[in-house]
Design a protein that fits this description.
By secondary structure, this protein is α+β, with helices and mostly antiparallel strands. The chain has 5 helices and 9 strands; from the N terminus they run αββαββαβαβββαβ. The protein has a 5-stranded antiparallel sheet. Strands 1, 6, 7 and 9 form a 4-stranded antiparallel sheet that branches. A hairpin with a 2-residue loop joins β3 and β4.
Length: about 240
């Protein structure tokens, strides 16, 4: 009899505890996103030029491309480009064929070299890049395969874009809290959407285009015009706030 009574009492306590647990109210939260964008004037440009030459042998083709590369490096050095901002992006050797009388005929070996370089502080001298292009135009067979405007140091711009993104998130959370007749509490979690980069905002028709350098100026006595436009530095975040 005593054992049965003890069992009934224990079961009653257990059920009472489960009822309290199930009746516990979960905290109210709101998850919002925020986007902060800062417009920035680019202060540097990265360019890649491609040099190619076909000759009877690989060595002869390499020597011809080497001479072209020497002229390119000379122009860059004269323009004040430092060694750290110049690099070989690619170097390839391939057989060159022509289609003759229904068959492919080997006509020589082609050597190709890509040179990438950066021009800094273009805000102080916005004609510097155009001047370099005008000098490179003089090299026959050179191709400008890529040109990208960017910002050398994005640190302070991303700091500001994060501030703007968080302000937008707080503003959204406040609106939802007001509609729910609650108040915004502490931040429970915050995540940033990937790694941001400075991207073109407008203007840069020449970005990531490929064209022959001799076509860039159209005529030898016409200087190259190269508007840089503006860039956007953007931060996207997701924040979970406690509502009280």
């Amino acid at each position: 009899m005593k054992a049965s009574c003890f069992l009934v009492c224990a079961l009653a306590v257990l059920l009472s505890g489960c009822g309290q647990s199930n009746g516990r109210q979960e905290p109210s939260t709101v998850t919002v996103s925020g986007v902060g964008t800062v417009s920035v004037e680019p202060d540097m440009v990265r360019m890649t030029v491609s040099l190619s030459e076909t000759a009877r042998t690989t060595r002869l083709a390499q020597e011809a491309v080497g001479k072209m590369a020497g002229r390119v490096l000379g122009i860059l050095k004269d323009s004040g480009i430092e060694d750290k901002d110049i690099m070989t992006a690619s170097l390839t050797f391939n057989p060159e064929y022509e289609w003759r009388v229904s068959r492919s005929v080997l006509v020589g070996q082609r050597a190709e070299q890509g040179i990438e370089f950066a021009v800094r502080d273009i805000r102080q001298n916005n004609e510097k890049v155009a001047g370099i292009i005008d000098r490179l135009v003089e090299i026959d067979g050179i191709v400008l395969s890529r040109i990208n405007f960017s910002v050398g140091d994005n640190t302070e711009h991303f700091v500001r874009s994060r501030e703007l993104a968080f302000e937008k998130a707080v503003q959204k959370a406040g609106q939802y809290a007001e509609l729910s007749r609650l108040k915004v509490g502490k931040v429970l979690s915050l995540s940033e959407d990937g790694v941001g980069n400075a991207v073109p905002l407008y203007g840069n028709r020449m970005v990531n285009q490929q064209f022959k350098m001799e076509e860039a100026a159209v005529m030898a006595d016409v200087a190259t015009v190269l508007p840089s436009g503006q860039l956007e530095v953007t931060t996207r975040i997701s924040v979970v706030f406690l509502l009280e």
